[in-house]
Specification:
Layout: H1 2-8, E1 13-15, E2 19-22, E3 25-28, E4 32-34, E5 37-39, E6 41-43, H2 67-72, H3 79-85
Antiparallel strand pairs: 1-6, 2-3, 4-5
């Protein structure tokens, strides 16, 4: 899929922040490099190397605390300490 994605955009002009969509794959251009230099725009060719990073790889921690746990906490005790030990 990624090869077909890149091939679809050969000859396309991209810039920082440009959104590209193909076959259900949605991307957002963050950084464009030419060698070691960061540039603002460029042309996608057969020699272009694309790097994909997934947003779904993020981790979000949701912690639900009971009222007893909240009331039990003294002002000198870290609530995080209670969460990790119980």
């Amino acid at each position: 899929d990624m090869y077909n994605f890149q091939r679809q955009f050969w000859g396309s002009w991209v810039y920082e922040g440009k959104r590209l969509t193909f076959n259900g794959i949605r991307t957002n251009t963050k950084v464009i490099r030419h060698g070691d230099q960061v540039i603002r725009s460029g042309l996608i060719s057969e020699d272009t190397k694309l790097t994909f990073r997934s947003r779904s790889a993020r981790i979000i921690w949701l912690v639900q605390m009971s009222t007893e746990m909240w009331d039990f906490a003294s002002p000198y005790e870290a609530v995080g300490n209670q969460i990790s030990h119980e």
